[in-house]
Amino acid sequence: MKTQPTKENISSYIIQAQEQELKRIALELHEGVGQTLYSLYTGLQLIEGNVDQSMKGYMEDMTQLLEKTIQEVRLLAVELHPPTLTTLGLLSAMKTYLKLYTSTYGIEVDFNVFGDEVEISEKERITLFRVCQEALANIAIHADTIRADITLTWEPEGLFISIRDFGKGFDVEAAMDHSPGLASMIERMGLIGGSCTISSRMQEGTSIEFFLPL
């Protein structure tokens, strides 16, 4: 006898399908659009060295604009699906993402890791990356700060991830009613048996704690 899928199973299926599509789009961005833009960038650099003085300023502006566009495409590709997440794991993917994040948004992130990394499933790696990504995006958009901290702590009972900013803070209860991003973090962690705790104080910043039992 067939059983009806639960709400959790349906959510999990939807997320898995979304991740596969994001992975495909990220690959096309990196190997298609990204490579084409880089070819144009190198071509412009060659032309820049052979134009008269009156055009040099214009060519420099165009080269800088193209360089900025390449950086944005790289960040978008990593946001959609970091290639190292599957092959090298969560820590490598986070380091790659944080470099692009800082260069794009100007927010310095102090990244600390304690304990020995434990192998976790691909589903868990993707989920943890996504919730960290959501938290960092919220900092860039809402926190009004130039500094944040991320700490990963591997302990026998599980992985603890703490993300803290030093921005303007917000009313957590009020935000939960109209913030799909916050609700998504909590739901995603629940689907892998983990938890998400959000706390914030006005003018003092926000702290988000993720926990994944091992």
UniProtKB/TrEMBL annotation:
Its EC number is 2.7.13.3. Keywords: ATP-binding, Kinase, Nucleotide-binding, Phosphoprotein, Transferase, Two-component regulatory system. SUPFAM superfamilies: ATPase domain of HSP90 chaperone/DNA topoisomerase II/histidine kinase. GO terms for molecular function: ATP binding; phosphorelay sensor kinase activity; protein dimerization activity. One of its GO terms (cellular component) is membrane. Residues 21-85 form the Signal transduction histidine kinase subgroup 3 dimerisation and phosphoacceptor domain. It catalyses: ATP + protein L-histidine = ADP + protein N-phospho-L-histidine. Residues 126-214 form the Histidine kinase/HSP90-like ATPase domain. This is histidine kinase.
